[in-house]
Amino acid sequence: MRSNIVSEAGLPTRLSQWWEGIPFLTSAVVIVCGIIYLVCLLVGYDSFIEICFLPSAVVSQFQVYRIYTSVLFHGSLLHVMFNMMALVPLGTELERIMGSVRLLYVMILLATSNALLHLFIALLVAHNPFHPYPYFMNECGIGFSGILFSMIVIETTLSGVQSRSLFGLFNVPAKWYAWILLVVFQLLMTNISLLGHLCGILSGFAYTYGLFNYLLPGPSFYSSIESSSWLSSCVRRPKFILCTGGNPSGYIPTHSSPNTTSSLLSGSMWRNISSWIPQRQTSTQVEQDQRFPGTGRTLGSSRNQAVSTMNSDSSLQARLLDNSSLDHPSDVAESGLGQRISDGRRSAVDSVTAVGGGHTPTQGLVTFDEEVQKLAAMGFEKTQAEVALAAADGDMNVAVEILMSQQACI
User: Are 114 and 200 in contact (CB under 8 A)?
Assistant: First the structure.
């Protein structure tokens, strides 16, 4: 008889498992960019002058199509490989949180804003009265890296990490991570587009600070697209992630640390700034933050989407707002924020009770805290554990997977 031998999976099996773990849109972008590069390689097309983002051509001939064609083409094998290798962890993380259709919309929005900022800065530099510098008007830029820099800023803000590893050599503060990458890449590779990467960072921060809120549609927009017949074949795929709606308030679900009282994204300062940022409203007059909408929902999920959205978003927002408002009791009293926090907590606890079945509200809240403590005992930061657990709808295994994927991106 043959003995029971446990052998390690082969390389094809591991590659297949790795590819199956990449969501639908991220894998689709990798495939499209790879096929476009291979076709260009086979036909010998390498000038890219007709499809790159050329500010002078956009202004003089109004060739708006360059905004989007320049994103999909790459100049060399290393160019497309590095960009796609960076896209896989970033796109996977954001797509699981936003959903496939929502992330596609965000990518198009970022590509458009990057191009407009690129054009504006190029015109400003080329026609300034002090020292005109027309080089940027004739710079031919291609590649997905501009959107990647925007996604780096968004993912870093969403994850709430305090530091990021720079190529595994040393850690840098998370808020400076994108800027340090910009400088490092510019020093190592002089032929890359400084302005394209810079505009990507600026667009990422604009999205993070809510300046694009007016351009972000509500959950019904994404639901109508997902339910359309022409997308039904894609929606049925296991890797496709459905959108689950936004957070029930206008606050960004980022981390909350003891020394963030002066942070732009917490306390009364954020409330003052958010007063002039355009906010979308649903029919129930509840503000929603469409920037970081919470977890996506796969097609095969057995839980009710409305219950899971209220569970993850309301509990997380209530806890974060509670932490940020403790230092400003007068603001809470004047704005009625305390009432919204208590309502959010009650709704979150009711959601946990509805999903779990048979538990009292106090038990639901205690269970969430206990799971957070378990994650913290595993070595994860408590704030990140709360975010991941809420995004996973209370599923410990999914929360651990989210936290591990975040650490893998560091």
Answer: yes
Walking along the chain (410 residues) 10 residues at a time, the average pLDDT comes out as: 57 84 93 94 88 91 92 91 93 91 94 94 88 83 93 88 82 88 86 89 93 89 87 84 54 34 36 41 44 50 45 48 45 44 47 44 62 82 80 79 71
Strand partners, 141: 53
Query: Of all helices (H) and strands (E), which one includes residue 263?
Result: none
145 is catalytic: yes
User: Which is the catalytic residue, given 79, 118, 197, 328?
Assistant: 197
Tell me whether residue 150 is one of the annotated catalytic residues: no
User: Residues 27, 56, 100, 145: which is the catalytic one?
Assistant: 145
Max Cα separation, the chain? 87
Q: How far apart are CA 323 and CA 259, in angstroms?
A: 12
- Comparing CA positions, the residue from 189, 207, 209, 188 lying closest to residue 199 is 207
The two structure tokens encoding residue 204: 């990422």
Q: C-alpha dihedral over 260, 211, 286, 262, to 10 degrees?
A: 10
